[in-house]
Structure formats: structure tokens, C-alpha cells
Structure to design on (138 residues):
């Protein structure tokens, strides 16, 4: 492969590494943290229920507290589902980017001769430019 193609591939690989360093590693699943929060809410719910049985005058406050606990519990369930969707989307795009990189490499390998010719034309004429796309560096 000519130096132009090597340089383009090298730049592509460097960009991929920069992107990876910017996003970092995939975070752990949030389900265990959500499970812990829901467990703690269940304990609070049980505590409120036990207090409300001992105190006739606090039943309205207990009902409100139980409603709020249930609302937070349900919000955490929704958050769990949304996090899983985000995780699935991230995995989808990671795979697509890897496929694209493989396709680009295969294209470069399959078209070495044509790319060498482009390099040869460029070396003959400094004003030569390829019109294949705005991203092309030839």
C-alpha cells in the first residue's frame, strides 16, 4: 500500500483511539445499584407500615410516605429499562464502527493498485485532487 493510504489508515486508527479514550470503558451494569436502592426502599416501606400499625393518628402521613416510596421504586425500574436500552445502543454502534473499520481496511487492501495510481497522479501534478468525496485526502 502506498504512503498516502498508510497515512490515511494511521490517522483513522489514531482517531479511533482518541474517541475510545474520550468515552472510556463501558460502565458497569446499573442493575445492582438499582437493586440495592430498591431493597432499601422496601425496608423503608416495611418500617413505615410497622409504624402506621402502632400509630392511628399517622395513617395519612404513612399512606403518603408509602405512595412516595412506591413512586421512587417505579422510577428506578424505569431507569433500569432506559439504561439497558442505552447500553444496547452503545453496543450496536461499537459493533457498527468495528465493521466499518474492517470494511475500510478491506477496501484499501482490495484497491491497492488503483490507490497507487492515484498516488502516482498526485506525484505528477500537485494540483491533482480526487473528487470521490469531501473526506478524501488525495
Amino acid at each position: 500500500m502506498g504512503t498516502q493510504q498508510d497515512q490515511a489508515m494511521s490517522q483513522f486508527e489514531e482517531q479511533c483511539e482518541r474517541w475510545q479514550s474520550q468515552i472510556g470503558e463501558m460502565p458497569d451494569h446499573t442493575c445492582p445499584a438499582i437493586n440495592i436502592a430498591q431493597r432499601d426502599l422496601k425496608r423503608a416501606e416495611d418500617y413505615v407500615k410497622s409504624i402506621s400499625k402502632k400509630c392511628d393518628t399517622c395513617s395519612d402521613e404513612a399512606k403518603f410516605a408509602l405512595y412516595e416510596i412506591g413512586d421512587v421504586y417505579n422510577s428506578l425500574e424505569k431507569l433500569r429499562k432506559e439504561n439497558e436500552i442505552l447500553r444496547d445502543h452503545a453496543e450496536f454502534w461499537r459493533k457498527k464502527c468495528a465493521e466499518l473499520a474492517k470494511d475500510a481496511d478491506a477496501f484499501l487492501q482490495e484497491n491497492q493498485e488503483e490507490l497507487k495510481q492515484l498516488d502516482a497522479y498526485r506525484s505528477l501534478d500537485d494540483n491533482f485532487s480526487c473528487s470521490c468525496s469531501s473526506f478524501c485526502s488525495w
About this structure: The helical segments are 3-23, 31-54, 59-110, 112-124. The radius of gyration is 29 Å. The CA atoms of residues 51 and 62 lie 8 Å apart.
